[in-house]
Amino acid sequence: MGSNVTVIEFLDHIIPGMDKDISTEFQKILNKQGINFTLNSKVTGIKVIKNKAIVDFTNNKTAKRERVECDKVLVAVGRK
C-alpha cells in the first residue's frame, strides 16, 4: 500500500508465544512484504514534533541509542 512499516520488538524474535522456527519463517515472509524489524530493542520515548512522531529506542545488547521518524505509531503491549 506504499507505506514503510518498522516493528521495534523487545525480544530477539517475533510472536513469542510460538515456536522459534515458526517465528523465523513468519518474519521472512513479512520481510518479503516490506515490513522491517528491529529486534532486541526497547522503546524509550516517543515525541510528536510538527505532525511527525520521533521514536527513541535502545538496543538491548549493545545499549546503542537510535531514533526513527514516522507518521504514525501503533503501540501494542502483550495480548490476553
Question: Any chance you could write out the topology, listing elements then pairs?
Answer:
Blueprint: E1 5-8, H1 20-32, E2 35-38, E3 41-49, E4 52-59, E5 65-70
Parallel strand pairs: 1-2
Antiparallel strand pairs: 3-4, 4-5
Could you explain how this protein is built, in words?
The structure is a single chain. The chain is of the alpha+beta class. Helix content is 16%, strand content 39%. It has 1 helix and 5 strands, in the order βαββββ. Strands 3-4-5 form a 3-stranded antiparallel beta sheet, with no helix packed on it. A two-stranded parallel sheet has the order 1-2. The relative contact order is 0.19. The mean pLDDT is 92.
Nutshell version of this structure?
Helix content is 16%, strand content 39%. The protein is an alpha+beta fold and 80 residues long. The termini are far apart.
